[in-house]
Amino acid sequence: MTHPFIENYAQNTHVKAEPDVLKSALPKTRVGILGGGTAGATIAIRLAALGIHTTVFEKKKSLIDGPPMCHLHAGGNLYREIPDEDCIDLLKQCIDILRLYPYTIDVRPTVFAVPKRDDDSPDDLLPRLNKITNAYKELVEQDPNNQVLGEPANYYQLYSYEQMIALSHKDQIAEPKTLDEWMIPVAKHLNLNKIKYPLIVAQEYGWNIFRLSASAQLALAQYEHANVLTSTEVKQVSQVNSSNDKTQSPTWQIEYQNAQSNATQTTEVDYLINACGFQTGIVDDMVGIDTKRMVEFKASYITHWQGAGGQIPEIIIYGNRGTPEGMAQLTPYPDGYFQIHGMTNAITLFNDGLVETSGNSAQPQLPSKYLEYISEGWDETALKARSQKAIDFVAEFVPAFNNANTQNNALFGGQQIPGEDDTLRVADVSLYSHISYARAENVKASSTLIAADEIVAEFTKLGFVSGEPNINNHRNNHQWAYLEQNCNEDISKIAQVLAKERGFPVAMANINNGINKTT
């Protein structure tokens, strides 16, 4: 069953809209997607829009309720250690995913500061920023609708110490419109003597997980061919016809159980997609796939601070990951709520939180306490202690933030990393054509639409989808059915229900500046 509120809302408010391309899929094509995170939900939308009978199995009560996310990495500027090419890939992916989920974005700039204690210089980042700017300009020239991050020429801007001092004397604007207005609260609250110059400001926006969940669930509610089973645990998958006849692809039997029933049920699908996030290895073991991967448990913390004086950009203080001086990330939400990442082992990272495959299993084994956190909730004492450390960590550079309050909640979970490189930030999907199986392995949520495209290409090759040239017009032009049926207010109503249901402040389901309003 789907989330009751969303199901009722979709039925009572809108008529399901099936696009003309449904005839392009074979009527008997059935796909099972294990996992309803960002990858599973996005792939389901892509397939259902083609008329493919798609069933999503999700253990939690609603879709996209996973590891911490808050930032649209449209340029990858958080990651100084990754190649420039990966940053450009992240830019492309983020623009693409933003056009699928436009109501999930909070439009505000991100400030990137290199502290004086750091060995690097802000000038080291300028060649990369210029490459990203040129790549953005080219994307806009290819399709003007790609201009969702503001003018390409304004993708990033630099501020000197003198400019920041001058801005610190100006009156703060409650609802900033210009970049200078956005930078006034930064000039007032950031310790300007602890950072190197120039200060970098880029158009990397906020990404709201509650609104993403609401958008995906409303999108899937538009398609008769999409079936979403939440509160449902998959017990086993097995091949049905694995004969030696190479002309016949195997099908899969899925055994599953709903939380409200003691009985197990089975269904059969023509293609199986593993989108189980950090638990993809469990399904790989069922299928018989031997692969290497890592899993990392991470957390970010929710705090409340009334001293910002209005809207404020996201603030990033660079640092070396895993050291006591790791990166600090202060992400704003409406009504004074902030999400904090501190990339140290005392805050966001954990000494024993990164594990890799070993032995005969494709599933890395997280310590049991982290699995209990994910399934049962966090230990309050440990949560409060780490939340306070996060506040103290940010207050070193934003002294007034010392008055922030902990909120006894966090966004946390396990993140999969394909292979054996824990710095990997760009990955999408692995395909196993001979057994009708695919595994989504997205490190960043922005790559999920690219993963869906690769699966559609696979389906075209297998004959599940027609190869007609216009089959992907809706995808290429981002003409998604739910965007015609729903608006920002619809997303807000459902996101607020989800935030409350998950134990977060309702204000965190809202945004200050929507992408449609600002563009």
Automatic annotation (TrEMBL):
The keyword Oxidoreductase applies. Keywords: Oxidoreductase. Residues 31-401 form the FAD dependent oxidoreductase domain. The keyword Nucleotidyltransferase does not apply. InterPro entries: FAD-dep_OxRdtase, FAD/NAD-bd_sf, HMG_CoA_Rdtase_CS. GO terms for molecular function: hydroxymethylglutaryl-CoA reductase (NADPH) activity. This is FAD-dependent oxidoreductase.
